[in-house]
């Protein structure tokens, strides 16, 4: 399906590109938000990634379009970090109907999860976030990160085992992972 859309876009069909954006925007922004801790920055990088994708469609050689797009986004993120040489600051919480106590607990739990994720080796962190924040398949993750599928499986298995261990020790709240 993606290859047909790519051909339509190359032929000038703007609606086909809209379908690509609508299909991949949410998983791409989720992945970038996990990487930056800043949803607005993630949206900006995603937008730049879609622009880069559009400009380079002639270079798409087939395979997983999602993996190709995520590779572009990862490169955009690396470029951004090089240019700014600083970590993105988290987006302030938007007002909600939840009580201040619940918001504080959620913020603390999210901080614990982010701290735990930060302890992971960089590539393992990327594999975990691509799988669970962006819902990528093993094949898409392998293609995006240029690693074998067996390595994706092994990294996810070890990470899930570590996560279960952290949850059993009470380091991370189970409810946080559901929300």
TrEMBL record:
Keywords: Sigma factor, Transcription, Transcription regulation
Biological process per Gene Ontology, one example term: DNA-templated transcription initiation
Chain ranges of the RNA polymerase sigma-70 region domain: 21-85
A single MF term (Gene Ontology): DNA binding
Domain RNA polymerase sigma factor 70 region 4 type intervals: 113-163
SUPFAM superfamilies: Sigma2 domain of RNA polymerase sigma factors (SSF88946), Sigma3 and sigma4 domains of RNA polymerase sigma factors (SSF88659)
Family the UniProt entry places it in: Belongs to the sigma-70 factor family. ECF subfamily.
Protein name in the entry: RNA polymerase sigma factor
